[in-house]
Amino acid sequence: MGKLTNKAAIITGASSGIGKSIARHLANEGANVVLAARRSERLQQLADDVEKEYDVTAKVVETDVTKRADVENLVKETKAHFGSVDIYINNAGVMLLSFLKNDHVDEWEQMVDVNIKGVLYGVHASLPEMIAQEEGHVVNVSSVAGHEVFPSSTVYSATKYAVRALSMGMEKELSRSGVRVTNISPGAVDTELTEHITDGDVLDMFKQQEMTPLHSEDIAKAVAYAVTQPSYVNVNEVIVRPMHK
Ligand code: NDP
């Protein structure tokens, strides 16, 4: 029996990278997983694989986190199917790095919509359930860019600082409610995240950088650690950076 057996865990951004790996790691601990993102074929493939590999149920709910009604539906479906909402992983995100002088204002808006509003909608939809249950765990995926600002990360960092501020406020407001909050800040992880960058100056800058990134599993293990602690333990902040050699 896993430490999360009979728990229902929602993971946003489960169609790729870190979210996909978190879903596997929580299923490995016995959680039933609810997989949310826009690309439902990818989610269905993951759900099939997870159910084959682990003794859990995996449910797909196609969700655009920028749509409040989608996120409300995600939580409603989870509650209807599993009877509770125990863990909510606010992982969906976009990192459209650009230099301010290049004025990618549409991408700034997209980052605000996904990275901030998407997370707020997750909190809005899941928190009342968790408070009523007097138990729950929200994990917000921020970034080291939510601790430091780099050239071209200004707007992305602004969104990730916002996520971290939200985590800090939640931790303070919810400490007596039974709802735990973890903010996780990864450094560079090898995923599809950088594939959406359109600013040519950023892409040129990347060509000159050498580094060995983390793997999604490195972050998923940290999340699994946080959500499998005894209920009196509140792991509030985890930073995972790659070593540079
Ligand atoms: P990926 O690009 O591999 O995954 C991003 C996920 O977010 C996808 O599953 C995508 O699904 C989902 N997503 C994007 N927009 C939406 C939307 N509107 N609605 C629902 N889902 C959406 O990147 P990562 O796995 O690396 O990123 C996961 C999180 O980790 C992000 O919050 C990112 O900022 C953070 N992070 C990543 C780092 C890295 O170096 N990789 C470092 C620090 C933090 P779909 O397109 O199917 O909707």
TrEMBL record:
It holds the Pfam family adh_short. Keywords: Oxidoreductase. The keyword Nucleotidyltransferase does not apply. It comes from the Bacteria. InterPro entries: NAD(P)-bd_dom_sf, SDR_fam. The keyword Oxidoreductase applies. Belongs to the short-chain dehydrogenases/reductases (SDR) family. This is SDR family oxidoreductase. It comes from Halobacillus amylolyticus. The lineage of its organism: Bacteria, Bacillati, Bacillota, Bacilli, Bacillales.
